[in-house]
Amino acid sequence: MRQSVPYFYQLGTQIGYLDVPTAHLTGLLRRPRAVEPRNFVPRDIPMRFDPRAMPDIDRWVRRHGSRFLFVNGEQDPVVAEPFRLGPGTRDSRVLWAPGANHHLGLADLPPTARAETTATLLRWAGNPVAPRR
């Protein structure tokens, strides 16, 4: 769980986290706020949400981003607000993994998209894929 602290910190301070209405369940839930990011970050680490962070990053990606690869799961609730490429974004891709959720990787992409993405990553790393004969 310790390795997840930075992720939950960023959720609670920049990205945001889903809000599940539970008022109608008052008195029925044992831990009504158990899944909030604050509960996964040690209390001695201050957390304050900055609502300007993600719009600022999104704007930068659209105007200046280069070599970005966004792999989204089709069933992932987090991508209700996905990054989109803009007129200033260069050499970047947005991919969707059919039926995948939040925990996915390149292996979850369809074979053609996986091969193209692997070739792109190798090119970005300065190791272009040799053409198949």
Question: Would you give an account of this structure?
Answer:
The chain is an alpha+beta fold. It folds into 2 domains: 2-40, no CATH class; 57-124, no CATH class. It has 3 helices and 2 strands. It has helices at 5-15, 53-64, 111-124, and strands spanning 69-73, 93-97. It has a two-stranded parallel sheet with strand order 1-2. It is globular and about 60 Å long. 7% of the residues are buried. The model has no long low-confidence stretch (mean pLDDT 90).
Mean pLDDT score, rounded? 90
* Number of DSSP helical runs: 3
Q: In what range is the share of β-strand residues?
A: 5-15%
Q: Determine Rg (CA atoms, Å).
A: 19 Å
- Contiguous low-pLDDT stretches (5 residues minimum) are none
Strand and helix order: HHEEH
Distance between the termini: 46 Å
- Helical fraction: 25-40%
Largest sheet: 2 strands, parallel
Total beta strand runs: 2
Which structural class is indicated by helix and strand composition? alpha+beta
Enumerate the strands of the largest sheet in spatial order, edge to edge or round the barrel: 1-2
Gross morphology is globular
